[in-house]
Amino acid sequence: MIQNKIDYIKRGAFDELYTPKEAVECILPYIPDGVKIIWECTAIENSEIVNVLKANGFEVIRSHLNDGLDFFEYEPQQYDLIITNPPYSLKDQFLKRAFELDKPFMMLLPITTLEGRKRSEMFQKNRVQVLIPSKRFNFIKEKKGSWFQTSWFTWKLHLKNDLNFINV
Q: What is the C-alpha R_g of the chain?
């Protein structure tokens, strides 16, 4: 649970960047067979994550804090997988909550998320696996772009390797 809702609403500069279509398309082969319902817990209207997943036959439950559906307080009754690009300033809290929900997930986070003793311990304990695209994506915010390396941090997908390089 976030201690201060004001801090949650006034997040960092890289917290409301919109996921490009190609960042979602590259993970489609890694979504496990049998997944039918995906929860995108930070989806704005016209989210590319939602659009790409729906276009590929998945049912998507969309929620966002702006719609009164706080990831730290809300959980859909039924879903198979969480796929999201969470606010980066809250990545530790999002990861902790996702582990607590005990459902498979894929979170798009900066590659630097690998840094830090506490996260390292959390990743080792939970056997997090990472999908690393071969290029940086352009995250759009108000017609301005922001290029930086991100990766999909996954859990309970049972990938062949812990580090998986994706040619994009």
A: 15
Within 10 angstroms of residue 125's Cβ, the number of other Cβ atoms is 9
Q: How far apart are CA 82 and CA 155, in angstroms?
A: 10
Q: Pick from 82, 97, 83: which is nearest to 2 by CA?
A: 97
Tell me: pLDDT of 6 over 70: no
In the chain, domain spans: 5-166
- 5-166 architecture in CATH? 3-Layer(aba) Sandwich (3.40)
Segment 31-35 shows an average pLDDT of 97
Give this prediction's pTM: 0.88
Encoded tokens for 70: 């706080």
What pLDDT does 8 receive?
45
